[in-house]
């Protein structure tokens, strides 16, 4: 059984259809990548899984259970965690508090100590800056914190929305490496990236989303070699 | 020329025409008085809307300008016999000056800080009015209030025994402010104010002198509000600091504009008309039980906000557009 | 304008009443309404207005919210919509001033039982009649009382502190005080206005305490009156006398909120439950039965006003406003229940009632309950009671 | 001596103002709503406390155990059933003006409902300590105000600890900073709002309870305090809890001490204009974050 | 090339509390250039923009535009003098249409609503947003918001345009489009200073690149020179740079 199953969903903003009959599935332990042009609906997809948006038709199942009718916090409680586009930290809270908030759900709260340790080993920079106020950190550090915060929630499925956005090249490789490490610890990952080449290098399978519909899917290799992908997303 | 016979032009014209005819059919001075008040409140809400709606600065102290206009014109009238017609201009200018004086220190304040600062200013102003019984040799009355001398029928001094002229005067004021809002909405200043409301820093980066635009808006809004104050002074002929500069006046203005739909040309007008009539009706119908009418009024406001959070304008806009479309369609058919 | 119909067809006479029925003055507005209602019930039960074929009086109440503009709108409505024969009200001077102007403009009589601002009857109006005394009359009597006591008890009074709410009424009072205190050669050591409905009057009390005036005179509505009294108690301020100026000190709620603290305070008014006048006891008793608390001077004026109006209507024999105005102007009531307020009710040229009877009462604890005991002038005093002067202090 | 007395009194009253402002600042900090109904809630609590004292002889301070939860519930339900729908409709708005107007409408409705039901009387719980004072030479300290002050401090301390230390407190602050992301942390934002509004209302209730032994309740008593509370909240910095307390003390002190040198009405003017002058220098108040706004 | 100096920074420093975000920075921009500004996150790039556009006032140093000292002028005054900018975190007037947004910018050079609309439409054509002119700005995707950001700045008819990461978040195909757009803008006679992490594009566009690290300029030169500079590789590019 797939960990996450997206079954034919359509999502609207008002009258405008942003996702049309989208289906996809993610198995436990996979790294899945969603690529697509700007405005294709990638963030919309992630936000729908998180419950911030409700599909008009279709449904989403997590572990075989329908979650598309649940409230966002209920979905988070099930272990579906998102690192939103543009980091969105709690700007006036310290690094530590941001992490603590990350483990707000009852289940993750129990493992708070242990997860915090884990985050600090994975991201030693954060350990150094425990007391720094989030808003004063540089872009790269903020991205680290956003990911660390998500890890505190003890995710079963971690969704990252363009984590490399606005990062210096050196930082980009760092973050992607980090994602790989997280996956190695058994977390299933859904990655939305513009850095298509790097992203596909990293993942097992991928979906191409265009104008709200899935137009292509396949293994990373297949996609990397697909002429359309090559032309449109790799600029080759 | 053809354009002028589209519903977009003749419907508003029709409305104005109906408003002009009303006094011919209503003889009750009370109803005319209330209707004048209704138009007057709609006027004040529209004047507030310049700064509170377009520029997005939630002023909770507009009573100050009503008071400024009212007191200045009335003092000039009582002491040197200056006709309130001229007083309107002087009162409006003094109010505008005050608007700038309030506007300047509050330029850097955003959101709720600005709103609450205006509360502080208005309260301070009100207390000063209460404490001041004389300006030079001119008696202002302090807390006792100021009685505007009654001359009987004196059109040259904006005094009439009949309510009809007051009604028309309010109507003219309202038409002026609506016309002005309509122009503003489409003008450079209007664009600038809206930009400031949406994001002040971004507006600065586009070359907008936000401080100046805000001060102009504050001055304009205060000017029109002050002119309204002059009208109030001649209609009620008694100025009482608490009633005219107090929180009730200030809040009422804001209420009307927001309930109607702030930042739109006609929202405040609709809010002013609706809520004033409702307030008047509940008071008359339910004043046997102490508190009942205001309780109902409060509930009605709450319901409006819950069900029409963007303002009553929503309620009117769509049907109006439909009507325009329908009439348009018919005209085309008729022409063929 | 007004409802001038010939007497034959009159079934009911509409009387408009503008009162503060919401807002912070609502309680006093309510008492005014109750007093009027009781009088009208009596009048109607006794056969209405006989010269108008037994027409009944119908009361129409309008809520001013304590706001002048609303008062004006209501006056307009009562006159032109409801077509009332006359109006009473409006408790607050601030509302009465513009509302009476509306009535004057429509030539509809307006009877003011309570508002005391001097200027109300000093504008040359023809249709405005005031049953109440002018604010400054009270001030005059208060000062006379002080002088009288000083002499009688041999306690010279030199300094006075004035504490008053910063409203029309308070600012009016201070003018009177200044005038009469100056005439009497007393020194005002403190003239302290405070914002009505204060959250804390301790600062004012502390200031007074520093200055140690001989007499403290106060002009407040009930919330501040009670707050002042209690704060004086807390800080044990001890002058020769505390003297109130009716309003809050005469409000039935005052005793409830101050308890013993107000014992030995003085207050000036035109009527007290124990005052030695005809009908006083009976009417007050009836009111107490009906509404659960005693009348105060303002209730009595409202009550009396309805009888003054009844008398005028009887004599006018018509609902023509001019006739009513004329009848009111010619009022000379020397018998009947109006005696409880004044032995003789006459209005002068300006519409001001002449010789409103002013008396001073002292708050005393009698059988465990606070009471207002009339102590001055001597001829009106409760038999056997004398003023306690100077203020005996707080450790009683 | 006079100055010392007035300083003490200013501090005592300031504590109560601070307590009232605290609820206001909390609601603002988390929901970005200026709650115009705060004064009405204060009034409701005063009247409830009065009647509990009057009918059951319950000391106002004891009535806390009944009234605080009741006020919490009132606030909770108010947000749930009136404010929430408005906020939902204004999701992407930084300052929900509609919600502000709603609270203003509620204030009118509540005040007049109480007027209808309980009448307009001035009510005060004359407890044994109501008029009591501690006298040290010529200095007198009002006992009920001392109690009120101590209660305010204790509540402020506990409340601050709650916000900083507890899970829920942290969730509330997080929601205040970014409600969209708070959702993604598994925070039930709408419930947090209800709780925040409930706590804010309960704080107004506490202020009412400590006032009732020495101040009079009536339907429009809220108006006496609300403007002051607004000023205090801005002075302290919107959203700052300790700012509210410090702001309260400052206003209390100015009001009390300045009144020794000028008339009480001029202190009001002084307060308002000093406040404006202060904002000119520090547009986000004493402890407000300029990043917040 | 005896080109005219358009902008000059002379020893500009800004401190935020203890942090020196930009330190003793000097450089010149010549009329008609496209210059890239790169550097690690937090290097102070956006701060340089904020200094030039008047959001911050330098703690030390001066800034000249066309020989005029513009240090300490307000943002709107600087915009008037011909510097347009975009924001890294895009800031559209969300509740208003795309056209409305751009008209706000266009009003800088005219008081006439009709003229402003014409200018705005022209700019919208240029940036490829014409078809979305009636969409509310808050409903745009990130790319379109960035386009809008550029359009707003362009509408003020700047001589110098400061572009802060307008290519971030675009995929390669879109980057190509955007690069083309920037070239068009440049061709119309506007000098451009751009901050960019998408190196490929920065290199393709810029005639000259400056590298910032810890608020200091650590390198400057042609794209090739800069990207082969070891210091730049260490601080910015990382060792495994050069794959895509
Ligand atoms: N709140 C909104 N209301 C209306 N339309 C919206 C809203 N948010 C996004 N859209 C529209 O929905 C479509 C998909 O947006 P989405 O943010 O999911 O795209 P994306 O693939 O994540 O793009 P990007 O790469 O720019 O982040 C876009 O056309 C956008 O304009
Ligand atoms: N207003 C401010 N107050 C305090 N520190 C600031 C302020 N603005 C910027 N900084 C700090 O100055 C440094 C430079 O920031 P800047 O935004 O210029 O970086 P950048 O080079 O644009 O980075 P990025 O590529 O991530 O956008 C950072 O450490 C930042 O935290
Ligand atoms: C309290 C009353 C005796 C005075 C009256 N309310 C007035 O305003 O004049
Ligand atoms: Mg996206
Ligand atoms: Mg930057």
Examine the coordinates and then state which fold CATH places here, giving the name of the CATH topology of the largest domain in chain E: Rossmann fold
Task: List how many beta strands of chain A DSSP finds.
Answer: 10
Largest sheet properties of chain E: 6 strands, mixed
Q: State the largest interface.
A: B-D, 46 and 55 residues
Task: Name the CATH homologous superfamily of chain A.
Answer: P-loop containing nucleotide triphosphate hydrolases
Family (chain D): Belongs to the binding-protein-dependent transport system permease family. LivHM subfamily.
InterPro entries (chain D): ABC_transp_permease, BCAA_transport_permease
GO molecular function, one term (chain D): transmembrane transporter activity
Keywords (chain D): Amino-acid transport, Cell membrane, Membrane, Transmembrane, Transmembrane helix, Transport
What would you note in describing this structure?
The complex is a heteropentamer of chains A (236), B (336), C (396), D (293) and E (244). Chain A is α/β, with parallel strands linked by helices and 236 residues long. Helix content of chain A is 40%, strand content 26%. In chain A, 54% of the residues are buried. Chain D has 293 residues and is an all-alpha fold. The longest helix of chain D is centred in the first third of the chain and has 30 residues, at 2-31. Chain D is globular and about 60 Å long. Chain E has 2 domains: 1-82 and 160-244, Rossmann fold (3-Layer(aba) Sandwich), CATH 3.40.50.300; 92-157. In chain E, the strands form 2 sheets. A 6-stranded mixed β-sheet of chain E has the order 6-7-8-3-9-10, with helices on both faces. In chain E, helix 3 packs across helix 4 (113-127), helix 3 (98-106) runs parallel beside helix 5 (142-155) and helix 4 packs across helix 5. The longest helix of chain E has 16 residues, at 172-187. Chain E starts with a strand and ends in a 7-residue tail after the last helix. Bound molecules: adenosine-5'-triphosphate (ATP) (2 copies), leucine and magnesium ion (2 copies). One adenosine-5'-triphosphate sits between chains E (16, 19, 21, 39, 41-47, 88) and A (136, 138-139, 166). Chain E: Pfam families: ABC_tran, BCA_ABC_TP_C. Chain E: This is Branched-chain amino acid transport system ATP-binding protein. Chain E: Residues 7-239 form the ABC transporter domain.
Topology:
The complex is a heteropentamer of chains A (236), B (336), C (396), D (293) and E (244).
Chain A lengths: L3 E10 L2 E11 L4 E6 L5 H9 L6 E6 L2 E2 L5 H6 L2 E4 L11 H8 L3 H5 L1 H11 L1 H5 L10 H14 L4 E5 L7 H16 L3 E5 L3 H7 L2 E6 L2 E7 H6 L1 H7 L3
Parallel strand pairs in A: 3-8, 3-9, 6-7, 7-8
Antiparallel strand pairs in A: 1-2, 1-4, 4-5, 9-10
Helix pairs in contact in A: 3-7, 5-7
Chain B lengths: L6 H19 L3 H26 L8 H18 L3 H20 L7 H21 L2 E2 L2 E2 L6 E2 L16 H23 L1 H11 L1 H6 L4 H27 L1 E2 L1 H5 L1 H14 L6 H20 L5 H16 L5 H23 L1
Antiparallel strand pairs in B: 1-2, 3-4
Helix pairs in contact in B: 2-6, 2-9, 2-11, 2-12, 3-4, 3-9, 4-9, 6-7, 6-9, 7-9, 11-12, 12-13
Chain C lengths: L11 E8 L6 H20 L10 E8 L4 H13 L5 E4 L3 H14 L3 E3 L15 E3 L4 H19 L5 E7 L2 H16 L3 E8 L7 H10 L3 E5 L2 H13 L6 E4 L7 H7 L7 E4 L10 H12 L5 H20 L4 H9 L2 E2 L11 E2 L12 E8 L2 E8 L20
Parallel strand pairs in C: 1-2, 1-3, 3-4, 4-5, 6-7, 6-8, 8-9, 9-10
Antiparallel strand pairs in C: 10-13, 11-12, 13-14
Helix pairs in contact in C: 1-10, 2-3, 4-5, 7-8, 10-11
The complex binds adenosine-5'-triphosphate (2 copies), leucine (LEU) and magnesium ion (MG) (2 copies).
């Amino acid at each position: 059984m797939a960990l996450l199953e997206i079954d034919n969903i359509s999502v609207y903003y008002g009258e405008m259809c942003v996702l049309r009959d989208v289906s996809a599935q993610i198995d436990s332990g996979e790294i899945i990548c969603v690529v697509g042009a700007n405005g294709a609906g990638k963030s919309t997809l992630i936000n729908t899984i998180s419950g911030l948006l409700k599909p008009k038709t279709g449904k989403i199942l997590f572990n075989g259970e329908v979650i598309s009718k649940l409230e966002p916090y209920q979905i988070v409680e099930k272990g579906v965690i998102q690192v939103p586009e543009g980091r969105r930290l709690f700007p006036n809270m310290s690094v530590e508090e941001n992490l603590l908030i990350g483990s707000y759900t009852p289940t993750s709260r129990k493992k708070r100590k242990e997860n915090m340790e884990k985050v600090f080993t994975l991201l030693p920079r954060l350990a150094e800056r425990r007391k720094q106020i989030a808003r004063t950190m540089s872009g790269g550090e903020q991205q680290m914190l956003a990911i660390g915060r998500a890890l505190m929630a003890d995710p079963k499925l971690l969704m990252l929305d363009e984590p490399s956005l606005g990062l210096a090249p050196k930082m980009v490789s760092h973050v992607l490496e980090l994602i790989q490490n997280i996956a190695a610890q058994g977390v299933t990952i859904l990655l939305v990236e513009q850095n298509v080449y790097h992203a596909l290098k990293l993942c097992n399978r991928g979906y191409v989303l265009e104008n709200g519909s899935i137009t292509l899917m396949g293994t990373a290799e297949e996609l990397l070699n697909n002429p359309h992908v090559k032309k449109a997303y790799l600029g080759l | 020329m053809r354009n002028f016979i589209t519903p977009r032009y003749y419907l508003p014209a029709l409305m104005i025409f109906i408003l002009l005819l009303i006094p011919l059919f209503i003889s009750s001075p009370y109803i005319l008085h209330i209707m004048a008040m209704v138009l007057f409140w709609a006027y004040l809400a529209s004047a507030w809307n310049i700064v509170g709606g377009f520029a997005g600065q939630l002023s909770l102290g507009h009573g100050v300008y009503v008071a400024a206009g009212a007191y200045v014109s009335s003092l000039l009238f009582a002491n040197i016999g200056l006709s309130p017609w001229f007083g309107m201009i002087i009162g409006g200018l003094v109010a505008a000056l005050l608007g700038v004086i309030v506007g300047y220190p509050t330029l850097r304040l955003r959101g709720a800080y600005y709103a609450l600062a205006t509360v502080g200013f208005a309260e301070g102003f009100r207390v000063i009015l209460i404490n001041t019984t004389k300006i030079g040799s001119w008696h202002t009355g302090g807390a006792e209030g100021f009685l505007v001398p009654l001359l009987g029928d004196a059109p040259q001094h904006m005094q009439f025994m009949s309510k009809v002229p007051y009604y028309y005067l309010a109507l003219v004021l309202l038409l002026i402010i609506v016309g002005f809002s309509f122009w503003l909405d489409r003008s450079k200043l209007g664009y600038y104010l809206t930009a400031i409301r949406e994001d002040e820093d971004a507006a600065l980066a586009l070359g907008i002198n936000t401080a100046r635009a805000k001060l102009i808006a504050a001055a304009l809004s205060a000017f029109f509000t002050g002119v309204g104050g002059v009208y109030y002074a001649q209609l009620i002929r008694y100025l009482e600091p608490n009633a005219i500069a107090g929180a009730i006046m200030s809040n009422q203005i804001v209420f009307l504009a927001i309930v109607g739909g702030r930042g739109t040309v006609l929202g405040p007008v609709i809010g002013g008309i609706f809520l004033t009539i409702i307030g008047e009706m509940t008071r008359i119908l339910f004043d046997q039980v102490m508190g009942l009418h205001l309780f109902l009024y409060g509930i009605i406001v709450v319901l409006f906000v819950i069900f029409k959070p963007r303002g009553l304008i929503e309620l009117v806009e769509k049907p109006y557009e439909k009507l325009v479309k329908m009439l348009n369609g018919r005209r085309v058919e008729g022409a063929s | 304008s007004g409802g001038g119909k010939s007497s034959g067809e009159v079934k009911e006479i509409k009387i408009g009443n503008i009162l503060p029925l919401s807002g912070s003055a609502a309680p006093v507005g309510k008492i005014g309404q109750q007093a009027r209602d009781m009088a009208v019930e009596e009048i109607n039960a006794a056969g209405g207005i006989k010269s108008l074929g037994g027409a009944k009086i119908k009361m129409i109440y309008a809520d001013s919210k304590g706001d002048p503009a609303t008062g004006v709108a209501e006056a307009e409505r009562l006159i032109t919509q409801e077509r009332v024969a006359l109006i009473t009200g409006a408790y607050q001077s601030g509302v009465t001033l513009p509302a009476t102007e509306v009535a004057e403009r429509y030539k509809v009589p307006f009877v003011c039982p309570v508002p005391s601002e001097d200027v109300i009857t000093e504008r040359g109006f023809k249709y405005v009649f005031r049953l109440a005394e002018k604010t400054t009359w009270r001030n005059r009597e208060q000062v006379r009382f002080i002088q009288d006591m000083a002499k009688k008890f041999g306690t010279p009074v030199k300094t006075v502190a004035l504490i008053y709410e910063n409203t029309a009424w308070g600012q009016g009072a201070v003018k009177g005080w200044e005038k009469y205190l100056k005439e009497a050669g007393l020194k005002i050591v403190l003239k302290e206005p405070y914002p009505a409905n204060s959250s804390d009057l301790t600062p004012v009390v502390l200031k007074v305490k520093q200055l140690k005036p001989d007499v403290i005179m106060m002009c407040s509505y009930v919330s501040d009156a009670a707050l002042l009294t209690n704060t004086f108690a807390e800080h044990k301020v001890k002058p020769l006398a505390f003297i109130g100026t009716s309003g809050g000190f005469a409000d039935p709620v005052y005793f409830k909120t101050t308890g013993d603290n107000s014992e030995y305070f003085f207050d000036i008014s035109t009527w007290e439950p124990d005052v030695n006048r005809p009908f006083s006891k009976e009417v007050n008793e009836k009111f107490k039965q009906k509404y659960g608390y005693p009348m105060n001077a303002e209730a009595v004026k409202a009550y009396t006003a309805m009888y003054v109006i009844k008398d005028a209507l009887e004599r006018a024999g018509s609902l023509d406003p001019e006739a009513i105005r004329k009848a009111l102007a010619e009022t000379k009531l020397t018998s009947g229940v109006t005696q409880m307020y004044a032995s003789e009710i006459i209005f002068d040229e300006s519409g001001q009632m002449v010789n409103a009877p002013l008396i001073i009462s002292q708050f005393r604890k009698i059988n465990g309950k606070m009471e207002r005991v009339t102590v001055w002038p001597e001829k009106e005093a409760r038999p056997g009671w004398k003023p306690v002067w100077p203020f005996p202090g707080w450790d009683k | 001596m006079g100055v010392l007395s007035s300083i003490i009194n200013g501090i005592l009253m300031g504590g109560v103002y601070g307590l009232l402002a605290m609820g206001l600042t909390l609601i603002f900090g988390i929901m970005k709503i200026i709650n115009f109904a705060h004064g009405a809630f204060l009034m409701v609590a005063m009247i409830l406390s009065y009647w509990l004292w009057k009918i059951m002889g319950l000391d106002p301070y004891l009535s806390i155990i009944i009234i605080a939860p009741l006020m919490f519930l009132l606030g909770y339900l108010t947000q749930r059933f009136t404010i929430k729908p408005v906020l939902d409709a204004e999701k992407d708005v930084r300052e929900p003006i509609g919600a502000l107007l709603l609270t203003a409408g509620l204030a009118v409705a509540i005040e007049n409902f109480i007027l209808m039901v309980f009448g307009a009387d001035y009510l005060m719980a004359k407890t044994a300590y109501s008029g009591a004072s501690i006298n040290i030479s010529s200095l007198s300290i009002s006992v009920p105000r001392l109690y009120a002050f101590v209660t305010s401090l204790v509540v402020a301390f506990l409340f601050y600890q709650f916000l900083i230390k507890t899970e829920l407190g942290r969730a509330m602050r997080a929601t205040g900073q970014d409600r969209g992301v708070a959702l993604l942390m598994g925070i039930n934002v709408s419930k947090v709002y209800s709780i925040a509004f409930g706590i804010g209302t309960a704080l107004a209730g506490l202020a009412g309870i400590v006032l009732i032994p020495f101040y009079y309740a009536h339907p429009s008593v809220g108006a006496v305090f609300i403007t002051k509370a607004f000023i205090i909240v801005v002075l302290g910095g919107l959203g700052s809890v300790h700012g509210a307390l410090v702001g309260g003390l400052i206003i209390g002190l100015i009001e009390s001490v300045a009144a020794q040198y000028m008339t009480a009405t001029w202190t009001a003017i002084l307060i308002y204009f000093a406040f404006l002058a202060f904002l000119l220098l520090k547009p986000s108040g004493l402890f407000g974050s300029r990043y917040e706004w | 090339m005896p080109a005219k100096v358009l902008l000059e920074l002379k020893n500009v420093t800004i401190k935020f509390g203890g942090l020196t975000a930009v330190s003793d920075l000097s450089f010149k921009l010549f009329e008609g250039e496209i210059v890239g500004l790169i550097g690690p996150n937090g290097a102070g790039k956006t701060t340089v923009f904020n200094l030039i556009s008047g959001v911050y006032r330098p703690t030390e140093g001066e800034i000249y535009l066309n020989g005029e000292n513009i240090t300490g002028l307000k943002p709107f005054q600087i915009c008037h003098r011909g510097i347009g900018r975009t924001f890294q975190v895009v800031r559209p007037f969300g509740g208003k249409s795309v056209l409305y947004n751009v008209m706000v910018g266009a009003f800088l050079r005219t008081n006439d609503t009709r003229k402003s609309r014409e200018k705005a439409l022209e700019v919208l054509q240029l940036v490829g947003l014409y078809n979305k002119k009636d969409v509310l700005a808050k409903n745009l995707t990130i790319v379109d918001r960035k386009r809008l950001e550029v359009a707003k700045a362009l509408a003020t008819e700047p001589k110098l345009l400061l572009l802060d990461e307008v290519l971030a978040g675009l995929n390669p195909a879109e980057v190509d489009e955007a690069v083309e757009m920037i070239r068009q803008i440049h061709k119309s006679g506007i000098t451009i200073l751009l901050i960019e992490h998408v190196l490929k594009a920065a290199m393709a566009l810029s005639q000259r690149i400056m590298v910032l690290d810890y608020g200091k300029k650590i390198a400057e030169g042609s794209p090739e020179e800069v990207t082969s500079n070891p210091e730049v590789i260490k601080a910015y590019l990382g060792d495994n740079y050069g794959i895509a």
